[in-house]
Design goal:
This protein has 234 residues and is of the alpha+beta class. It has four helices and 15 strands. The strands form three sheets. Strands 5-4-1-2-3-7-6 form a seven-stranded antiparallel beta sheet. Strand 1 (52-58) and strand 2 (64-72) form a beta hairpin. The radius of gyration is 25 Å and the shape is globular.
């Protein structure tokens, strides 16, 4: 009789344990389902290379004044770059990785103080002659955080887009009176104006330059400075 009682008690305990564990298993599955997908460098580049372009800043006689990188931020052709890339140019043209040359490009907003610039690419035509959309990067709305992984894409040479990987060293640093994001993602000449991208594939900043007083720390324009230009009429 005692053996039967012990067995019944044991079975009830097992059933209760299983019943109490069900909600927690459900919660665990819900958390997993809510976690956004993150990408590595290869996946980031494959998804976003069509939205990044080499930009040529030309003089009136079509000679090259400067070169850098730009990134498309809307399917209708709005793009962002660094102000110092396009400063003083008479003409601008974009060259995409597939060889397409897009011109003329209109400058719709600049801020020398933040080094931010917004461009408008010409209407894109489809193979049938109708209007087409550009491949654009989603724009991050929230601030970056200390230590999060990021990627930089740019054109150190016309036909050579590269991607580098690093972290956010500081989400907000005052440099010469300007707020800057600092990153260890490697930046070289020609990458100015290119995108800083988070692990979710969102545009999180625009490459501005390097910090001479800190080795391998580079300056990024915060997206709030780009959004400020987008809010202005053009």
């Amino acid at each position: 009789m005692k053996l039967k009682l012990k067995l019944i008690t044991f079975m009830i305990g097992i059933l209760l344990l299983g019943w109490f564990s069900l909600p927690f298993q459900g919660q665990e599955n819900a958390v997993k389902a809510d976690q956004p997908t993150t990408y590595n460098a290869e996946e980031i580049y494959d998804q976003l290379e069509d939205a990044v372009f080499y930009i040529r800043a030309l003089n009136a006689d079509d000679s090259l004044k400067a070169a850098g990188t730009g990134v498309v931020i809307s399917p209708e052709g709005l793009a962002a770059t660094a102000y110092h890339v396009i400063d003083g140019a008479e003409k601008l043209e974009a060259i995409f990785n597939d060889g397409r040359v897009v011109a003329p490009i209109e400058v719709v907003g600049t801020d020398e103080g933040t080094d931010a610039a917004v461009l408008k690419l010409p209407e894109l035509k489809s193979a049938t002659g109708g209007a087409a959309l550009y491949h654009a990067l989603p724009v991050r709305e929230t601030a970056v955080k200390h230590g999060e992984k990021v990627f930089a894409i740019g054109y150190p040479m016309k036909n050579t887009p590269i991607i580098t990987e690093g972290i956010v060293n500081s989400p907000k640093a005052e440099i010469n009176g300007r707020d800057r994001i600092l990153t260890s993602a490697q930046v070289v000449s020609g990458m100015s104006g290119g995108p800083l991208i988070d692990q979710l594939g969102r545009l999180s900043g625009i490459i501005s330059g390097s910090l001479r007083t800190m080795n391998n720390i580079h300056l990024i324009i915060d997206m709030k400075d780009i959004r400020s230009l987008l809010q202005q009429p053009y």
